[in-house]
Amino acid sequence: MKYIDVTLRDGGHQHGFNWPLRFVERYLGSINSFEEIEFVELGYWKQSGKFDGPFYSIDEKLLSSICKMTKKKISIMVDYHYCSHNVEDFPSNLNFNELGLIRVCLRKEDIDEGCKFVNQLKKYAKCKLSINFFNITNYDEDDLAYACEGAAASTADFMYFADTHGALDLEEKLEMFKGYTKLIKEAGMIPGLHLHDHSGKAYFNYRNLSKAGFEATDVSLGGLGKGLGNLRLEHVFDLRGRDHILDHLIIDKDLFNMPSGPYGVLTARDSITDHYAVEAERLGITPSEFGARLEGIVGPLKDNYNSKLLRNE
Question: Which of 101, 148, 170, 219 is a Cys-bridge partner for 208, taking CB atoms 3.0 to 4.6 Å apart?
Answer without folding.
Answer: 170
